[in-house]
Amino acid sequence: MAQRNSPPRRLSGQKQNTFFGGAAILAVGILAVKVIGMFYKIPLTNIIGEQGTADFTNAYNIYTVLLTISTAGLPVAVSKMVSEANALGRRNQVRKIFRLSLTVFLSLGGISFLIMFFQADLLAGMMNDDKAAIGIRALAPAVVCVGCLSAFRGYAQGHGDMAPTAISQIIEALCKLVVGLGLAYWLIKSGAGQSSAAAGAITGVTVGTVVAVVYMALHHVKKNLEEPRLSGDETEAAGRILKELLQIAIPITLSSSMVGIVTVIDSSLVQGQVQKVLLEDPSSWALYAGVADFTPLQDAIEAWKQAMGAGAQVTMSALTEQLKAAAAAQHPTAVQTAALALDEVLQDLSRTLYGNYSGAINIYNLPTSLMAAITASVIPAVSGALARRDRRGASRISGSALRITALLSFPMGIGLFVLGTPIVRLLFASLNAELAGSLLSTLGLTAIFSCVTLVCNSVLQAYGFVILPVIVMVLGGVVKIVTNYNLVGTAQIGIYGAPTGSVLCFALCLILDLAIIARFIPHRPKFGPIFLKPFIASAMMGAAAWAVYGLLFRVLSHVPEGETERVISWMGNAVATMGAIGVAMVIYVVLVVALRAVSREDLALMPKGDKIAKLLRI
What we know:
This protein is mainly alpha-helical. It has helices spanning 19-71, 74-87, 91-118, 120-126, 133-158, 163-189, 194-226, 238-280, 295-308, 316-328, 334-370, 372-387, 391-427, 433-462, 467-488, 498-520, 527-556, 565-594, 600-603, 609-616. The chain starts with 18 loop residues before the first helix and ends with a helix. 48% of the residues are buried.
């Protein structure tokens, strides 16, 4: 055991990446993945349509939860333990940690695969979308592959090598883009249904994980060949290594899985409530005039009522009882057959409505994705300042990170709020612009709260508050679920209430996070100057964007003789939207500089920040 206490030594052939360099590499990789994802999801929605988008989202939400439970905390644990053993030159210990972690990953991935593949119908039923089952099965192998990826990534990161992780993530995203979009397009052109096309798109995710595993395995073998094989250190018992792995991984897994679990519950609840209201209160149909044809639903309800007989009540609980009886019966009765037909019509309608919501969420996720680079940099920067006992420096970094987040998220959120419908009309020809646009406008406000909350969580974690952000997110999730259950279940509100739960959720999370920072962090940043000036600039920018869009669209909406109204309308909207965004960006930059909303210190945290400061004369 003498090797354990030997001084750290540099292994030959090993690159000595700095922590900040590693964070920068990961941040660039994350940003590239998000950009590729944008080029994947926007055309995908147009290819597979509203119902296909709902099927894709439901399958992916299930996959995300099981994936998080299987892999969220273990890569961090592996990275930490490999890094510690590697620093002491304990090569045998490093190899044993990797072998055991790979076994754990494969075991958890195998269990998740069995659940997803053989219980796909049950999981799809939980989401109130039976047609999502084929997509869930198509994603099942990806869970096993991602387990292997997590072991390889944790091992590489434990050696201070972040590049393989970033490259493998980009490989995944590119395969998803090329294979997924290609399969979805081919299936639609071949006459397959939207649910089959959604499964084809999901297959791209699985293919991406397989190719990424092959890359990481080859990289792992190459690095092992370069490293010295001789090492005299004694390894710890397998049980002790596994215990330490789980002690590190379980808290991280619990905190990471909360968001995914809340998302699955909320998605199931929203679709269930939509179906319930559509069945029990026909007055709610007026909310979706022009979105869906309710004639099939009316006919299915009448057929079910006639099969049940006079005096029967049309309720979701009665329909559920009939569906359970039909599932257990070898030969369904006339009532049960009518119930099955009614359930299919209800699911198709809720898939159409939820597909519009999912399309809006794809755009809403873009601002939060851009925060990944900031959150990846905040923790090491603040932690480094605290390690040097520079509390004021840590406070300055935290304040600058929050200010940059506000400067980026406020205009994006207000821009989505003001131009929600035009943006949907521009990007998603397959969605209902009025419905999805209204949902996107509300989600725009959510984007502001969620972006700032993400960075607040990173600041708290850097100061050592690991559990508090988890508790805050759980409280926010409860608010979201309760709000959506009541609002979506109201006939006069319906699915329009779904984004409201997200607004209240992240608003509460942000308020609580800021209160915790103000109470427990010394020399905490002053919130007024951080948020007030970006808000003023963004509000004025939003007003300008709204006015410019309205003016341009009126001028361009004239239909010349011989042209179709649809083409001219789309072109007019496209020019008006891009023109409004362009003018808004110029106005916003001018206002930010005029109001001195950003300092040279803030820009120093950004790539090429000094050059930007000189250009803006700050």
